[in-house]
Amino acid sequence: MRGALGGPRVLLRRLREVMAEPVHAQEKLDRIVIQIAANMVAEVCSVYVMRADGVLELYATEGLKREAVHLTAMRADEGLVGLIAREAEPLALSDAQSHPAFSYRPETGEEIYHAFLGVPILRAGNTLGVLVVQNRAHRLYSEEEIEALQTTAMVLAELIASGELQAIATPGADIAIRRPLHQRGVCLADGVGLGHVVLHEPRVVVKNLIAEDVQREVQRLEDAIAAMRAAIDKLIERGDVAHHGEHRDVLETVRMFANDQGWLRRIREAVLTGLTAEAAVERVQSDTRARLLRQTDPYLRERLHDLDDLANRLLHTLAGTDLATSREGLPENAILVARSMGPAALLDYDRAHLRGVILEEGGPTSHIAIVARALGIPAVGEVENITSLVEQGDAIIVDGGAGEVQIRPAPDVEAAYAEKARLRARRQEQYRSLRDVPSRTRDGLEIDLNINAGLIVDMPHLAETNAAGVGLFRTEIQFMVAQRLPTTGEQLALYASVLEAAQGLPVTFRTLDIGGDKVLPYMKQVEEENPALGWRAIRIGLDRPGLLRSQVRALLRAGAGHHLRIMFPMVATVEEFEMAKAIVAREEAHLARHGHPPPASLSLGVMVEVPSLLFHIDEVARRVDFMSVGSNDLMQFLFAADRENRQVSARFDPLCRPALRALKVVAERADALGCPVTVCGEIGGRPLEAMALIGLGYRRLSMSPSAVGPVKAMLLKLDAGAITAEMERLLAGDGDLSLRKALLRFAEANDVPL
């Protein structure tokens, strides 16, 4: 490197020594800029740190006027320093003052310096500051010098990220890396959790930056690339993708990038400049991330996730560490943060120490959302870039109900959420006091409140809530969390345990509802243009009867001596129910031939979630023993609006007239034909919607266990006759499409708690 004294290896060794010294943060930073200036043979070296308000403040300088430190500041759209921060790219100029972005600051005395070299201080692609060197002479800085300064900036990024410089920040001007952040996502599971960040796939912290033996580092990189590719190939070939919460297509994309020569070439070139393999990966990925974060093209932004995933895998391979964080020794009050996770991965963690989950991906009906609700863990999904905004151990708050995340919260914010958590706990205690109060409206109408379940860990909620039974047991969750297809014996063991835990209360088992967004990792995925309307649920069961027969056989054997309720999902025609019923009859005959005792009684039902059933509801009601309204799917099919697509999911309200009229048809015809009907979708667990359902004629609701208390508190104050009359009046009208405001007014006027 031209003009350098000893090269980057000597400089970095000296910087490490300075950083380890037990001195005041300002003195440490002052020594660092002196070392950099000397090594670069530069007359000026300055460090600008990004503040929480987006302003770059001069924190240390060698060569400029010392009184300018903490006095000189500029916006990210101002000056050469602002340009570097904004573009996240190095800038080398032989005559800085002739550049149109140059901003003269008289307090610095920099007007006598012409040559200028500045590089962004990056961490995970986020700009933490800018490092600058200057010389009086008009000169061109070499590529080697730019590379050396970029490597040095990685050390400064570590110092800034540690939070040590916060001690010398101007009062009220926090540095950006430690600033409090408020992020929004979508609610996955209700509740408030306060704790500290645990990254599901923690980043490797690179300490050793400079290679002692470049050729050895090149070989280490090549070996790690080969090992990473082999590991990805093995995952795809095995289909073992559930462990990391990723679907096959995600891994296929990662494999594609793992063979991308452009990305790998840049890493190899970085190693040849003298970096360790780990430092080269971190440097290239941080630069790539900085560029892609500034892109507006959604396709390019999406590729950022894939490259992050790949870089993380490569770093873990180089470091010889596990990709996922250890499940052992989970700290108290852990908030799990991940790009994505599968339900099996979440179940691996110690529930006693887990206070919340935050994901970059995953919507309200995703597999992990179902499991989080079952475990009672507050969860928020679709929080953009969350894994790069936090550090391991950061204080963090997750508000599942509001879909909000507070990162490194200020003391007053933390106190407010702590109070919110206490209020919620007191409210839950009040709901628990209603446990033994009959679920009866003010005018004496009995309403059955059931819980939705899918895991054996859900079953204690029956006793805790005093629910009437399990209105929906999602059998597919056992399949989703397994590494392979559960055997008939394993299914039998689960179903028998569930019935035993229910202690005589009714349990409605829904047969496998897979396909669409519920892809089992060990089953071949069928490519479909529209999976939600494709080969899923009962359609798979009827086309692959071996799968359905195995499950029905396990259910019948588990149900020996019990009242067994089996429900078929996604039924679109009467004929589909008859075909499923025939499979059950065949399995009953098989078990009888082999001497297995039958259930004490058997009821077969369907989920009303395909709109076609609305138009032959009488024929269905005459043939089945019961019906359950799956309001989640029914609503998305009625309005042709994918509930996982945020652009369209809010375009309709389940409390609008068309939706409520459809639900009323089901309730009225079921009642007329003596067919019991339950609502087991999300709307059954919301007090306002539950109030409307009672007004439509529904007397059985099934919901998440945490919703039983609020819904019961509502119905105890509700006059069923009054809400029935109000619903008749509202549905007959032609005013606002949504009845939500009108129903809120009714609740307020009648003192119904929501």
Automatic annotation (TrEMBL):
<keyword id="KW-0479">Metal-binding</keyword>
<comment type="similarity">
    <text>Belongs to the PEP-utilizing enzyme family.</text>
</comment>
<keyword id="KW-0963">Cytoplasm</keyword>
<dbReference type="InterPro" id="IPR040442">
    <property type="entry name" value="Pyrv_kinase-like_dom_sf"/>
</dbReference>
<dbReference type="InterPro" id="IPR006318">
    <property type="entry name" value="PTS_EI-like"/>
</dbReference>
<keyword id="KW-0813">Transport</keyword>
<dbReference type="GO" id="GO:0046872">
    <property type="term" value="F:metal ion binding"/>
</dbReference>
<dbReference type="Pfam" id="PF05524">
    <property type="entry name" value="PEP-utilisers_N"/>
</dbReference>
<dbReference type="GO" id="GO:0016301">
    <property type="term" value="F:kinase activity"/>
</dbReference>
<keyword id="KW-0808">Transferase</keyword>
<dbReference type="InterPro" id="IPR050499">
    <property type="entry name" value="PEP-utilizing_PTS_enzyme"/>
</dbReference>
<dbReference type="InterPro" id="IPR015813">
    <property type="entry name" value="Pyrv/PenolPyrv_kinase-like_dom"/>
</dbReference>
<feature type="domain" description="GAF">
    <location>
        <begin position="24"/>
        <end position="170"/>
    </location>
</feature>
<protein>
    <recommendedName>
        <fullName>phosphoenolpyruvate--protein phosphotransferase</fullName>
        <ecNumber>2.7.3.9</ecNumber>
    </recommendedName>
</protein>
<dbReference type="GO" id="GO:0009401">
    <property type="term" value="P:phosphoenolpyruvate-dependent sugar phosphotransferase system"/>
</dbReference>
<dbReference type="InterPro" id="IPR036618">
    <property type="entry name" value="PtsI_HPr-bd_sf"/>
</dbReference>
<dbReference type="GO" id="GO:0005737">
    <property type="term" value="C:cytoplasm"/>
</dbReference>
<dbReference type="InterPro" id="IPR023151">
    <property type="entry name" value="PEP_util_CS"/>
</dbReference>
<dbReference type="InterPro" id="IPR000121">
    <property type="entry name" value="PEP_util_C"/>
</dbReference>
<dbReference type="Pfam" id="PF01590">
    <property type="entry name" value="GAF"/>
</dbReference>
<keyword id="KW-0762">Sugar transport</keyword>
<dbReference type="Pfam" id="PF00391">
    <property type="entry name" value="PEP-utilizers"/>
</dbReference>
<keyword id="KW-0460">Magnesium</keyword>
<dbReference type="InterPro" id="IPR008731">
    <property type="entry name" value="PTS_EIN"/>
</dbReference>
<dbReference type="InterPro" id="IPR003018">
    <property type="entry name" value="GAF"/>
</dbReference>
<dbReference type="Pfam" id="PF02896">
    <property type="entry name" value="PEP-utilizers_C"/>
</dbReference>
<dbReference type="InterPro" id="IPR008279">
    <property type="entry name" value="PEP-util_enz_mobile_dom"/>
</dbReference>
<feature type="coiled-coil region">
    <location>
        <begin position="211"/>
        <end position="238"/>
    </location>
</feature>
<dbReference type="GO" id="GO:0008965">
    <property type="term" value="F:phosphoenolpyruvate-protein phosphotransferase activity"/>
</dbReference>
<dbReference type="InterPro" id="IPR029016">
    <property type="entry name" value="GAF-like_dom_sf"/>
</dbReference>
<keyword id="KW-0175">Coiled coil</keyword>
<keyword id="KW-0418">Kinase</keyword>
<keyword id="KW-0598">Phosphotransferase system</keyword>
<dbReference type="InterPro" id="IPR036637">
    <property type="entry name" value="Phosphohistidine_dom_sf"/>
</dbReference>
